[in-house]
Amino acid sequence: MSLLDQLLEDLSLEGFELRQVVAGLSEAGWREPTPAEGWDVAAQIAHLAWTDEAALAATEWVAGDTTGWDELVTDGLKNPEGYVDEAALALATMPATDLLEHWDGVRGELAGALANVPEGKKLPWFGPPMSPASMATARFMETWAHGLDVREALGLAYEPSDRIKHVCHLGTRTRDFSYGVHGLNPPSEPFRVSLTAPSGEIWEWGPEDAAQSVRGPAYDFARLVTQRIHRDDTSLEATGDEAEKWLSIAQAFAGPAGDGRPKK
């Protein structure tokens, strides 16, 4: 199985599990507030549906149909800071059954479209262009992170799987981005990251002899880089001042610097 095939399979499973969480909700359940200020459960699902639809438009752009993507960019330029949130909140006003059906449709289409992007082609995006594998990783990260928000809003327990390795990998790859969105210069030397997976497996990135390092539970790291937990509420251990600094600003998602979660 190729990396892209594995990513698409894991993305499908993550989406399916979240769908199972919301499928039987009452209207009141869809309107439960989530940890994201101003967003209820419907807004979380609407955001995923809208972003999946944007990614689908990016695949169509590669295939020669530029209309959908060009319209997104034109609309986005009118309100660069708030466009994505506005689009999600507008979509969230749909009846819940229609919203769920819409999300089902676009995420199914997206999986097929990403699998069929010609080798070597990159997709346009709101940041740097992305390979199909990078796009699938980003869509997995968002689906997983927003799924945490939904479960928290509904008071549901969550048992992490080793699929979170995709989020951890993205977290390590976005180290320099995290510094950049905070107006800081990233360190020139690589860090060592050693994480314990839910299964007990050890995942490692970076050179063994790095002066700066991070180790601890992969679930904590994945939540930290998606800003679903405060640094002080994790069991992560940092060696070196720069490694500790990174953990305080880590951000795996695009956009301006997030506020993160308050300390419990």
From TrEMBL:
InterPro entries linked to this entry: CHP03084, DinB/YfiT-like, Maleyloyr_isom, MDMPI_metal-binding, tRNA_wybutosine-synth
Pfam families per the UniProt record, alphabetical: MDMPI_N (PF11716), Wyosine_form (PF08608)
Molecular functions (GO terms): metal ion binding
Domain tRNA wybutosine-synthesis: 187-231
Domain Mycothiol-dependent maleylpyruvate isomerase metal-binding: 17-151
NCBIfam families found in the cross-reference section: maleylpyruvate isomerase family mycothiol-dependent enzyme, TIGR03084 family metal-binding protein
Protein name: Uncharacterized protein (TIGR03084 family)
Species per Swiss-Prot/TrEMBL record: Nocardioides albus
Lineage: Bacteria, Bacillati, Actinomycetota, Actinomycetes, Propionibacteriales
